[in-house]
Design a protein that fits this description.
Blueprint (H helix, E strand, L loop, with lengths): L10 E4 L5 E6 L11 E2 L6 H7 L11 H4 L7 E10 L6 E6 L5 E6 L2 E7 L5 E4 L7 E9 L2 H12 L37 E6 L2 E12 L13 E11 L5 E9 L2 E9 L5 E8 L16 E8 L5 E9 L4 E4 L2 E2 L2 E2 L2 E4 L2 E3 L1 E6 L11 H13 L4 E4 L8 H10 L2 E5 L13 H16 L5 E5 L6 H5 L2 H5 L6 H15 L4 E3 L23 E4 L1 H4 L13 E5 L7 H7 L10 H5 L6 H9 L9 H25 L6 E4 L22 H9 L3 E7 L7 E7 L5 E11 L4 E11 L3 E6 L2 H4 L7 E7 L2 E6 L13 E8 L2 E8 L3 E6 L9 E2 L4 E3 L4 E7 L15 E2 L2 H4 L8
Parallel strand pairs: 23-24, 23-30, 24-25, 25-26, 26-27, 28-29
Antiparallel strand pairs: 1-10, 2-3, 2-4, 4-9, 5-8, 5-10, 6-7, 6-9, 11-12, 12-15, 13-14, 13-16, 16-17, 18-21, 19-20, 21-22, 31-32, 32-35, 33-34, 33-36, 36-37, 38-39, 39-43, 40-42, 40-44, 41-43
Length: 848
């Protein structure tokens, strides 16, 4: 006979209050005592010690070096809480994230041990709870010493860091990266709950979504959608239970029920809805979401647990078919090929528990504002919080999710293997409900890098992770997230099983990473290669001025001053900045101009790359820039710096990722060597008169031509430039300008430093508007890349555009959002209103 149901459903209680932090062992600096310091949960050691004013901010100056002792210490978090029996059968401690190697004790009894930052942990503590006060302690072992010890235990495996991050299941960039700070912290980094429940609970629910066929934009107007909810149960008694599921939204309501006999641990319900609205990526359509809810009840109707999710109906597949160019790599959503305009995502803070939903919303909003439709969550970081994926669902930002492996060989032996399997099952089950999730990727550079970096020889026959990427991870995806696409690594040449003798980074096959550019070659060489899909490439630049000067107090501040060196993590990074600048403009001799020059060069490099890649649609079907964001204030490849401010690169990406792009490109097959390319990544046909002009720098029109164009939706058209337009008499002082509707493009025949650019002559006025000011600029002479560096006026000031070219007599207006206390008069300052002309004329003309 079934037991009587409990009187109350599952109860979840936060245990976030009353925590203290103590140093247990390790190299705590002499004279510092860390005992019972007030602590925050979720949190970590670094942020707790900062809040107690025991340590300085590691993001500032060279405080990183001063605080390396923290990662070599053991730490203990402690709290007490009141508890009284409430009639439930079970009581579980649920840790959503422990960083990383920990022992959990309740009332001095060991509850469990953990060794994985990327997992959730549930411990049955019913027999350990006491009426009245209970003491909960979590002791963390030093992550640095644990990684070192595990490296010895598992055997040396090569990696790219000064810590063996590949021997511990912790965020790899916790130990530093070529853009990241070394802050190997510890802590209860995600929420903690005490769950009390009876009879049964929903242990896991996975909605598998299907749509009949691939309707596409021109297909069925009202497709049928199905969702099969696979539910795993955990029982506390032998009662029969029932699962009720309901799907609602956009005029739909579908219900289903399944009975589960005592002792059965799983069930599945399929709900079918007609006339569903399809979910589309940003700029391809809307993002309708449906509410899905499951209730666990007993025969008397009492509820014991509830689960809910928002789902979307869409199909996503990855086309990797061989063709005349090699092996394609094309995302196909609802039957329609999607040109991927994306960026790589790293953890938005070196202390990820500080990343709030609002911060995710700001960053994902910036991706959307930059005309992106995909973020790749990089494998050296995290499986992000649910808020990240929720917001991507809402905004139509596809997610490419790496498993947490990057730039290293990984042992396939226990205990690491068991941790990796548990981690993968945990996160695939958690994230598979999201319609934005388009791809699971096994690793970052771990197959290509084995050969490229000489890792195979150093392994001397030891395992390195291939079995994870070829068998374990794809099997888990197939089991828990059927239908979702999987690739073994990035870059990946499209072949399975992996052929280690084949170039995994060949431009003609699959996805490609391009790091010869920046590391060894100059950015015009982006045009030398036409990859099928560019999954990683980038160019460095400093953070915005206000971020830079907040983080670094050097006096004088120079490119090589001590704080600047600390905040430049790339190997020979400053040398590469210089080498990449000099072919284009002279190296400035003051810090203000250096900062502008390197910011300009970063933006220009990526704009050149993106316009080139898009001009080769559909042979190339995507570009994922390294990287959108930063985790602290640093010179890096990011478009948005560590304080969340938009760098000039952001605006270059927004231009190059626009739905409609007009660009002038060198073309070897063109009779004149130049072509105008009209890229129409829009649902509407683009037609009009393409006006082509060759002009002198003084504005004189030397030649003109007009070509009628009609470019269908999601198509590209290439028009050879006429000889009269493409052939300059004086390359140093002539340009080609193209116009189609409200889009434009320019082509310069020489590098800026070899051109006849002169000091910018501008007429500027500033007028107030409701939320800031307008900066009106008229060019007296040719002005290139006119930019308002608004953050130099006020850290919160944001401009709408950057990098604008003006011919003599042309005007433009910048909209600057800024607080009322900011001085708008500063917007005309030489170091705020910048042009490329400022950099080119330095050798011959005085600064303005």
């Amino acid at each position: 006979m079934s037991q009587q149901p409990p009187k109350t459903p599952l109860h979840r209680r936060e245990l976030h209050e009353g925590w203290t932090l103590s140093a247990v062992s390790g190299p705590v600096p002499e004279g510092m005592t860390i005992r019972q310091v007030p602590a925050t949960v979720p949190g970590c050691v670094h942020t707790d010690l900062m809040a107690a004013e025991l340590i300085p901010d590691p993001f500032l100056d060279d405080n990183e070096a001063l605080l390396q002792w923290i990662g070599r210490c053991d730490w203990e978090y402690r709290t007490t809480f009141e508890w009284e029996p409430g009639g439930h059968d079970r009581h579980d401690l649920l840790f959503h994230g422990l960083d990383t190697v920990a022992e959990v004790r309740l009332n001095d009894e060991l509850v469990g041990a953990t060794a994985n930052m990327h997992r959730t942990y549930r411990f049955d503590v019913g027999e350990k709870l006491l009426p009245g006060e209970n003491e909960l302690r979590v002791r963390f072992s030093s992550p640095v010493r644990h990684a070192d010890a595990q490296s010895l235990e598992l055997g040396y495996r090569p990696q790219v860091n000064h810590h063996p991050f590949n021997a511990i299941r912790k965020m790899a960039c916790s130990f530093g990266w070529d853009w990241g700070i070394d802050t190997a912290s510890s802590g209860i980094w995600r929420p903690l709950h005490l769950e009390s429940w009876s009879t049964a609970r929903i242990a896991r629910a996975r909605p598998v979504v299907e749509v009949d066929g691939e309707p596409g934009h021109g297909g069925a107007a009202a497709p049928t959608g199905r969702v099969t909810v696979d539910i795993d149960l955990e029982h506390a008694s032998s009662a029969d239970v029932r699962v009720e599921a309901v799907l609602t939204g956009h005029g739909t309501r579908v219900e289903g029920t399944a009975s589960v006999a005592a002792g059965e641990t799983s069930t599945a319900l399929t709900l079918e809805a007609t006339d569903v609205r399809l979910w589309w990526p940003h700029s391809h359509g809307d993002q309708p979401l449906y509410d899905l809810e499951a209730r666990l009840t007993t025969s008397d109707g009492r509820e014991h647990d509830r689960w809910s999710a928002r789902i979307g109906f869409r199909t996503v597949r990855l086309d990797v078919a061989p063709d005349e160019h090699g092996t394609s790599f094309t995302f196909v959503v609802n039957g329609s090929p999607v040109w991927i305009r994306g960026a790589n995502w790293i953890p938005d803070d070196a202390f990820p528990q500080r990343i709030t939903r609002q911060r995710y919303a700001e960053r994902i909003g910036q991706a959307e504002a930059a005309n992106m439709n995909l973020l790749r969550v990089w494998g050296g970081g995290l499986y992000e919080a649910d808020d990240f994926y929720d917001l991507c669902d809402e905004r139509g930002i596809l997610v490419w999710q790496d498993f947490a492996f990057s730039c290293a060989a990984y042992s396939e032996d226990e205990p690491l293997r068991g941790e990796i399997e548990a981690e993968a099952r945990d996160n695939v089950s958690r994230l598979m409900k999201h319609p934005a999730l388009a791809l699971w990727n096994g690793s970052n550079e771990n197959i290509w890098g084995m050969r490229e970096w000489g890792f195979l020889e150093r392994l001397d026959g030891k395992s390195w992770g291939l079995d994870y990427y070829e068998r374990l991870l794809p099997d888990i995806v197939a089991e828990l997230d059927p239908g979702r696409e999987y690739t073994p690594s990035s870059p990946w040449s499209g072949e399975t099983p992996i052929d280690m003798d084949r170039d995994a980074n060949h431009p003609d096959h699959g996805s490609m990473h391009s790091w010869e550019l920046w590391n060894r070659q100059d950015w015009p060489h982006y045009r030398d290669t036409v990859p099928r899909f560019m999954a990683e490439f980038g160019w460095q630049g400093p953070p915005t001025w206000s971020t830079l000067t907040r983080a670094i107090a050097d006096d004088p501040l120079t490119p090589e001053s001590p704080g600047m060196q600390v905040h430049q993590k790339a190997l020979q990074g400053n040398d590469k900045l210089t080498d990449g600048l000099l072919p284009h403009v002279p190296l400035p001799e003051n810090m203000d101009d250096w900062h502008w020059a390197m910011s300009w060069n970063q933006a220009t490099a990526i704009r050149v790359a993106l316009e080139h890649l898009r001009s080769w649609t559909p042979r190339c079907m995507g570009a994922v820039v390294w990287q959108l964001n930063d985790c602290w204030p640093v010179t890096s490849w990011a478009a948005v710096d560590g304080d969340g401010r938009r760098k000039p690169l952001f605006y270059a990406m927004r231009h190059a990722f626009a739905d409609r792009l007009l660009t002038i490109q060198p073309r070897a097959g063109s009779e004149t060597g130049l072509a105008a390319v009209v890229v129409n990544d829009d649902d509407r046909t683009w037609s009009g008169a393409l006006v082509l002009r060759r002009l002198d720098f003084d504005g004189t029109v030397l030649e003109t031509a007009e070509v009628p164009v009609r470019v269908a939706a999601r198509e590209t058209c290439t028009i050879d430039l006429p000889e009269s337009v493409a052939s300059p008499r004086d390359p140093s002082r002539e340009t080609v300008a193209a116009h189609l509707d409200d889009t434009s493009a320019t082509w310069y025949f020489t590098e800026p430093r070899n051109s006849a650019l002169t000091e910018a002559d501008l007429d500027v006025s500033v007028s107030a508007v409701e939320d800031g000011v307008h900066v009106h600029v008229t060019a007296v002479n040719l002005v290139r890349d006119l930019t308002v560096l608004a953050d130099r006026v006020h850290p919160e000031a944001v401009v709408d555009r950057m990098l604008v070219d003006l011919m003599p007599g042309e005007s433009t207006t910048f909209h600057v959002r800024m607080p009322s206390e900011a001085d708008p008069g500063l917007l005309t300052d030489r170091n705020v209103l910048r042009t490329l002309n400022d950099l080119v004329g330095q050798e011959e003309e005085p600064a303005r």
